[in-house]
Amino acid sequence: MCKNCDLKPVYKTLNDKNLCKSCFIKYFEKKVLKIIRQYNLIEDKDEVFVGLSGGKDSMTCLYILDKYLKKMGRQIKALLINEGIEGYRNKTVEDAEKICKELKIHLKIVSLKKEFGKSIDDFYKNYKGRPCTPCGIFRRYLLNKYAREYGAAKLATGHNLDDEAQSIFMNQIKGNMALSAKLGPATGVLVHKKFIKRIKPLYFMTEKEVTVYAFLKRFPINYIECPYFHNTFRDNVGRMLNELEEKYPGTKQSIVKAFIEILPKLREQYQGEKIGTCKVCKEPAAKERCKACELLNRN
Amino acid sequence: MKVNVFIERERKDVEIELKDNSTVKDLLKILKINPVTVITTINDEVITEDYKLNDKDKIEIHSVVSGG
Question: Could you tell me the fold of the domain covering B2-63?
Answer without folding.
Answer: Ubiquitin-like (UB roll) (3.10.20)
